[in-house]
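Input chain follows. Return structure tokens only.
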Amino acid sequence: MKTISGLFDTQEEARQAVDALEDAGIASDDISVIGPDGSATQSDAAEGAGIGATVGAVGGLLAGLGAFAIPGIGPVVGAGWLATTLAGAAAGGIAGGLVGSLTEAGVDEDDAHVYAESIKRGGTMVVARVDEAQAEPAEAIFGRHGRIDIQSRRSEYEASGWTAFEDNDEVDPLDRPRVVNPIVTPPMPR
């Protein structure tokens, strides 16, 4: 099995990539999605759609969408084998977090840092485990659905002084996309 990963700036692009992977015959059990919980990228903000609403509409894989926290990132939602691994590690307080889980899954460590930082900043990651025959079609699917060039994203981050994802970093609210939360619950009277 080979691990193919893609970073997307919008949850809609990620959802479309997941749909296309499943349509190409890649089993739902071999696809994972990780993205910010309740956040939306700037292009999604006008639509008011967070990852939960966007990818939650997909059948199969994302029926098991769950929320959990990743150190250094905060609340995320995810589905699939990688999300299960991360949720279990987070619940058990196991070190390694997202970068460790990605490298164990076969993602290059330098790239894993960029993926983690990108999720922290509001991006959505799709990861697929595929056999050799499915690798090239999976790469093409990611390309057709807006996958971000990871080297360009790394250069962009490094230009601002970033060197690597740190799971103990504080989140700078200016680096995060707007949180779209149309439902505001007033405090309970005492």
